[in-house]
């Protein structure tokens, strides 16, 4: 619906973009911009053409023992996931890579469990009998889990193989496979979400109560041999066909974090990395067994990365967790920009003038080895011609054009010393097995075995006939008197009859011997079947007993783990109680000391107060006594003065009114006494 809005393909290596009205670029500089790339595909390109141009050379390098990395980059809703994965009837790059790998290695695939991943991004190799035992053990364990699932009534694991969908495989086959080597394919699938690495193929874990446990983030490590960065402790699965690999791919896709936004209803909220690891090991000098020499293993890896699209919150209206996810996506993409720009600047300067910030993001740290020459790196840029996405697409195009200037050293193809291991040894061994009858593979069409050169390129011994009949004499009957010729014919017939009789006798002898041999073989077969049946019964009994012991052991182990967890829980509670008791005792001791100090303090205050009160009381008593003496003295003086005044007043008034005056004097004296007392 957006075809031709602003993008125009000028040629197969150049494209032009014209800023639409309303974009920020049109406001600043409304001109057409042109960019040049190695290849440009228009909207009509098929998935097959895109794969042949982009990924087929990487698959060829993978088979030759070299590493490869392919990024799908672009804004949100630009078709990155469609380009990488596609649909069942129109597969993308990833399924086609698997198709070509399995088409090419064909019958050179090793048996399952010959190669096993180790803990350091490498591979271990084991003999075929150990691989067969491990295969049987895995199958038996799978059957037991299935029986246990049915017994416990748990739901069946959903089928993610998409068998009902018609998948159109890619029929391309490469001729660069080493026929004297065995191959095995391993896959892994991870995502980088908010700068944390999670394994998409890891089984869901539950706790003792059956509740799901959140997956743990994986760390990035560096192997000690090749100095290659890898995600630690992830699940690597050996697959024998594209269908098996795609089943795991769909399983990982179901677990990958997605969300609906305004621009995309199935927007990826994380960067996904699908790794295809091809393990190659040579056969021995006789072409019979795989060499159990770990040093001669060749491990190559093809990483297919579907980067989450950059987006603006103002256009997606993202909030909450989606806003945080968008911030993490944009931050990691910006770190990728910075790393490649720094690499380009260092290469232009001819020396490392700046440190490349790989560790600022897990996605760049994970592929640090590729950027430093571990393998070939390619990028496919997906563009959506929406006018609303023009400004973001412009940044994508600028960055994609800039990355072409970054030079990455390519790894060397691994080759074995032909003087040690002769080429064609495995094919010769297979031909020898076919001729000697020790293999079930069909023999070639050999029409004549009598000293004729067959399709294998060498002569077979001649096979003489068992009996030869003499030829009839040549003669012509002219008349009935040719007695001598008739006798010759009769002699020839008698000779042929004798030869036939001898042949029949020899045939009868051979038949008797064959019958006796068949009877002996039948008897031996019956004995073997009887022994096998007895051994089978014993083996069945042993298997059942072993199963019972295993169930009992599993139950005891489960009970032991339960008791151990309860014991650990009790120990933790006991330690907590002891700690709380010590804490409470310390608090009580500190409280008692505080109370004791407070009592002592109050006692001192009480004593001090009592002493101060005593001194003050004594002081007040002394002052009161002194004041009373002073009052008494003053009252006596006042009384004396009043009497003197009364005597003077009485003498002046006369003697006539002595009686009345006497009462008046008493009244005045009593008032004076009261005043004096006051």
Describe this structure as you would to a colleague.
- The N terminus and C terminus are likely disordered.
- The chain is elongated and about 240 Å long.
- The strands form six sheets. Strands 4, 9, 10, 13, 16, 17 and 18 form a seven-stranded mixed sheet that branches. Strands 1-2-3 form a three-stranded antiparallel sheet, with helices on one face. It has a two-stranded antiparallel ribbon with strand order 5-6.
- The chain has 678 residues and is an alpha+beta fold.
- The longest helix is centred in the C-terminal third of the chain and has 171 residues.
- The protein is built from 15 helices and 18 strands.
Largest sheet, in brief, is: 7 strands, mixed
Rg (CA only): 53 Å
Could you give the count of β-strands? 18
Mean pLDDT: 79
Indicate the proportion of strand residues: 5-15%
Structural class: alpha+beta
Count of helical segments? Answer: 15
Parts with pLDDT < 50 across at least 5 consecutive residues: 1-5, 439-467, 674-678
What is the helix fraction of residues, given as a range?
Answer: 40-55%
What characteristic shape results from the CA principal axes? elongated
Distance between the termini: 121 Å
